[in-house]
Amino acid sequence: MLRSEPKKEKIEGESRQKSEAPCMIIFCAFDQQMYLIELAKRYGLNNYINLVFRKNFSAQVLKANMKVVGNCEYGLVLYRDRLPKFRNNGKMIFNCIDWPRDGESEKIHPTQKPVELLKTLITIFTDKGDVVIDPCAGSGSTLVAAERLNRKGYGFEIKKEFYTKANQWLQEEKQINKDIKEFGFQKSKMEKQQPTLWTI
């Protein structure tokens, strides 16, 4: 995920910052972290924060020969010289974040991230109206999270199957937002829940 680049305005010889520094968040395997940190430096992303995502379940649970199973995912916050903005509302932000289960969203992509987890990250590092970019959009869950939080989301996906399903999901989310603004409730959900009337 990326935020839009900061813009500077010059007013009577003074430089003023319009927005704060952007950052990039990458989900990766534990042993990929050092490689990605070094790679990011080539592109001016000289600083990082390690992230650990703690699950209350494990994909390795069926491996009977293992006494200790992995239940964590890993990630990095990459940024240039200035710290990215943090919107923590006075609370301490830990680099170990709980990974919520997502039982309501359709499983579109094998590495699909939970919308609530992405909402947590977007809320911490962006403000309403900021730009969120997912260059490997997959299921589109990042864009759905951005839509739910009133951010401008842009994504890219090369696999047509994932693109089609992700785009459909995102359009449904946009319709929900439109319904709420226009009617004050999710019209499409109400229509699905209409009772069937039977005559006797």
Contiguous runs where pLDDT drops below 50 for at least 5 residues: 2-18
So what's the overall shape? globular
Main β-sheet, spatial strand arrangement: 3-5-4-6
Structurally, the number of domains stands at 2
The profile of the biggest β sheet is: 4 strands, mixed
User: What is the N-to-C order of secondary-structure elements (H for helix, E for strand)?
Assistant: EEEHEEEHEHEHH
The Rg value, from CA coordinates, equals 20 Å
Measured between the Cα atoms of the first and last residue, the distance is: 57 Å
Structure report:
The N terminus is likely disordered. With 200 residues, the protein is of the alpha/beta class. β7, α3 and β8 form a beta-alpha-beta unit. The longest helix is centred in the C-terminal third of the chain and has 24 residues. Helix content is 29%, strand content 20%. It contains five helices and eight strands. It has two domains: 94 residues, no CATH class; 86 residues, Vaccinia Virus protein VP39 (Rossmann fold), CATH 3.40.50.
